[in-house]
TrEMBL record:
Upper lineage: Eukaryota, Metazoa, Ecdysozoa, Arthropoda, Hexapoda
Pfam short name (any one): DDE_Tnp_4
InterPro entries (alphabetical): HARBI1-like, HARBI1_animal, HARBI1_dom
Protein name: Putative nuclease HARBI1
PANTHER family: GH03217P-RELATED (PTHR22930:SF85), PTHR22930
Amino acid sequence: MDMDMVDLVDIEDMEVIELLQTPRVNNRNRLRRNPFVELSDEDFKQKYRFNKRYAMKIINLIREDLTRDPRGCSVSPEIQVVCALRSWARHEIQDDTADLHGLSQPFISQTCKKVADAIAQISHRFIKMPATLTEQEEAMQKFRRIANFPTVIGAIDCTHIRIKKLNVDGGHLYINRKGFPSLNIQVACDAECKIMDIVTRWRGSVHDSRIFRESRLKQRFEAGAFSGILLGDSGYACTPYLFTPVLNPTTPQEERYNTAHIRTRNVVERCFGLWKQRFRCLLRGQYCNIETARKTIVACAVLHNIALDMKEDVFNTEPNSHQFNLQTSEPLVQPIENNVRGNIRRRQFIERHF
């Protein structure tokens, strides 16, 4: 071996040794601060869109689920919950939430999934129809104060939540009539915009009327579980327990009925608006897998109801928020199906009350 070759080998060996001895550069600040201690109430709400009392309420509800980690997660339940709240409420890039808390983006993604799953598991405690006769009468009184429309216990409609495009068999079935992939979410709410029932399993191409027709809620109404009625738009069939507008009113009574119906049913539109303003991940779309998206939607419904109970204001300082479409799915000109019993019941109702 000549001298030039020996010199080349020595240089390569020295470069390898230097590389091994070079300390790894920490490109992320891993210092984790406690926002409950270090931030004022105002700064906390600015960063997380909710106040400390609300955040602690959520933490205490699911603390046990977040500490039951077989891998020995070193991140406290407090940090996990506020990271999820920030990610859902602001819908910012997960890297930004990660940098703020000294964590990694994959950890934030897994944390949001875990928090959504924990909250979804307790959804039955916060999302429920009025069960007792007293609760139903109270719900009807609140609706009647809106436009003097009697016996209403809920307003129902569907809204589309955008999801990522699915490149799998059947992925085209998630494309809605507006041309983007979505989940069609059915919600029934009370007069105070609280979500009482939610269905998240249907693809964007499925019509509102089918979702209700195959829902557990419809079965409960048919079984006589409720003494009141639902109000829906003309995309639904008129039934004895779900009243829709009169398509071509011909009498003053029918005109008054339609006016009161529109004002009273509008509460579900306001519910969707508030819900999506609180959680902009619903306004701008879910880009995780389908199952996680469904659980996140349910979790946001639970959080919305808790926020209403705690009288938590909607935090809205983002510019150009009016550019986002808050409207629900558009009703068809005519109902999908004709229900003679429903039309007769509605006509009798109009003659009696309007």
